[in-house]
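=== RUN LOG ===
request id: a7f3
mode: sequence -> structure
chains: 1
length: 504
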Amino acid sequence: MRASALLSLILALVPRLATLTYAAPHLIASHSVAGVISVRRPAVRPPKPAPKPIDEKAARTLFERPNLLVKTADDDAWRIAPPSGNLFDAEISDARLSQQQPTAGTNQWTVEAPITFEYKVREVPGVLDPASDALLFGFIDDAATLEIAKARPLKRVVVVDETVFSLYGDAIEAYFEHHGVTTKLLVLPTTEENKNMELVLKIAEAIHDLGIDRRLDPVIAIGGGVCMDIVGFAASIYRRRTPYVRVPTTLMGYVDASVGAKTGVNFEAEPGVWKKNKLGAYLPPAITLLDRSFLATLDERQLANGAAEIVKMAIVKDPELLDLLAAHGPELIEHKFQKTPYASSDAWEADDAASRVLYLAIETMLEELAPNLWEDSLERLVDFGHVFSMELEMALVHQGDEKLFHGEAVAIDMAFSSVLAHVRGHLESETLDLILQTMRGLSLPVYHERFDSPLTAEALYERVKFSQGQKIPLPAAHGAARLYNDVTQEEMDAALALWKKMCA
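=== RESULT ===
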């Protein structure tokens, strides 16, 4: 067998990872590769090394194993391939099935079934413009499926946050009426204090009542991060997987909640004690549609809330993003992350800092998520700011005006964690000052009196209990972070004292 033929067969057999695409047409063209995000940047990168020669003996060993599952042209059943079978005329599954006899008289089957999932995160200006059909068909790639979808009556369950509906309700209803879509419109209070199974079941009932096609009629979520999470969880449990589309209307949703695979709701572990996102599943949307114009209706607090997740990615892995936030933070909030070139400022250049910040925020997030989409590894830099914040957020979630938004709790955690890194000798004082100044420039809180020693102790206990060790991300340099497993309560108490002195 020729080496080229062997290579083609091997590529067909290798388990595929999740493929994600971030399309930003107004920026530099992007492309995706299996399991990672690769976006071309202006910077020059070294050429890739030439591929190693094919080891033909090893290649034969791979495809001659008897645990391959194949389907031949004259048989609709999947079967274990015989060692000597001709595989070139068969459909070959990524899954593997092997059988062993661990002890005399007993059998064991081992199933290897890699999950293949593709979803897109796409910028779509004017997503509610009747001239655009991205909201209806943007999730479909191939022409044949698109033709089928357009030829049948359209049905959509549309879940909209109450506040969003008050602002965009007329435009939403007009869009679906224009396209002749039969809709089941749910206007729900998708706030953190209502993030529970009750809303999930309401959505599931609506899906059932409308009778949608389980593959061609995706549920549509239009709202903030909580709305994304609730709809995603409902879609994950109705018939075990129903496709859905995310349209984030908050900055938190734009850069964080809408770009990953996680869904979930809060859980009342005991009366009055709520645990954040303890019930959930992993189900990426079919597509996320990003329309920046929604951000123009947000107030300063909501913008700052979302900016916390951008700060997070800047601190843990992107010096350029951190510098942009430090330089332009107040302007970004003031002008609501819109494209607003200002001739009066050389630093605020045409096609602007906001575009670059959002671009880097999404790219860096996807780079971290893609190789670990199902969180098989709990060693995650994206957990920075989320080790201690959940206890603080949930302690105040039902406290009315005193409650914290998710990003606000994350910001307080990041400020404390940065001080903790400094106390441990990982972070220079200049970088610590830059981080705190950047968060203040984005109107984020950096201190809360309820964040104290008992809270940090409880959070650390929860972390160790559910994460197989501490695995605490802490900043280690300008735009870089590391994971640590040796943080002590004594260090946290020392950090609390310094943090209070610096931030209270």
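=== NOTES ===
The chain has three domains: 3-112, 118-297, 310-503.
The mean pLDDT is 85.
=== END ===
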